[in-house]
């Protein structure tokens, strides 16, 4: 039978069975924490004992080693001197040039000797009587560049070799600028082909040395000045720094120099227009004509000079009028308003030259046809004749080729300048054919090397 106590307190039995789980685990938790604390304490003790053991070992080693006697310190000055000496030695070793191996030195010397021998051999061939041989040598020398320049400069003094020596220098170009004084001196020789070739050489070599050419324009020898001016004409726009000296050359009494200076100014172009326009007001007719000729070469870009040219057109000098009419015609459309006004000028000569200007413009003056037709019955027969020719040029541009085809008596000086231009081109072309080099003139063709 069940006990009476149990039966008597059933509620107590139920409370014991329903106790929470965490109260049951508390003893185990305390046991775990104690175990962890023991492990941590043991690890710390082990590390500390290991460190002490190492220190003891190092102490024993130091005690076992024999003690070295104390070092004697050197005086500070001696230490500094040694330090400076050491640094100097390091610097000298760092920057000192290592002597080239004997084999390399001999190789460089032999290469230099071979180059010198090659130059000498080619220089000798410049004097060959066969143009093909001399030309081939000059081309070969030019490929050697600056190395050949000293010997080529000397060859300019050799009558037989200087023609192709100048050609070789021209092919080298700017690298041969040391030869500029020698080339200018060579222009003193009375040899047309040599002067033409030297001018061409100067035009390629002295593009950045315009000052030297400008100074040469003040030499006494007229031929030197003429061909220096020709070299400047070949350089063209890049020679603009020589404009003041070329303007001064226009005033020279030598006609050939005046022509060449005006030709060069014309080739320089627009930058020369202000100075040329001012030269139109010069007191000497020759200077004015040369200036007008240069402006005619410049053409459309010379429009700034139109007012001064119109003033000359209205002057009483027929030569000046002719020069101005051609320049205005070459300038073109920008001059048409002033020229149309000049068609009704009271002076027949002014009307005549205005008609010539419009005729030179050819089809560009198409808008002036009606104004020109009004002069068909002009009281001056020369004006009516000029009108017929001008209308033919405007309507049929290929019918006439030259202003002098107007069949008038005026313009001999200006026409002479045009003839000199043609003669210059012919002279240069003859030299090119003879020497068999490249023609420097606009539109020039290369000449094949002959036997």
Arithmetic mean of pLDDT: 81
Please trace the helix and strand order, writing H or E for each element: HHHHHHHHHHHHHHHHHHHHHHH
Instruction: Provide the gyration radius in Å.
Output: 50 Å
What kind of assembly state do the chains in view correspond to? single chain
Give the count of helical stretches.
23
Content-based structural category: mainly alpha
Structure summary:
With 451 residues, this protein is mainly alpha-helical.
Features:
451 residues, mainly alpha, flat, disordered N terminus, disordered C terminus
Write the layout of secondary structure elements.
Elements: H1 4-8, H2 10-17, H3 21-64, H4 76-95, H5 102-125, H6 131-143, H7 149-155, H8 162-172, H9 180-186, H10 192-205, H11 210-216, H12 222-235, H13 243-250, H14 255-268, H15 273-279, H16 285-298, H17 306-313, H18 318-331, H19 336-342, H20 348-361, H21 369-373, H22 381-395, H23 412-435
Helix pairs in contact: 5-6, 6-8, 7-8, 8-10, 9-10, 10-12, 10-23, 11-12, 12-14, 13-14, 14-16, 15-16, 16-18, 17-18, 18-20, 19-20, 20-22
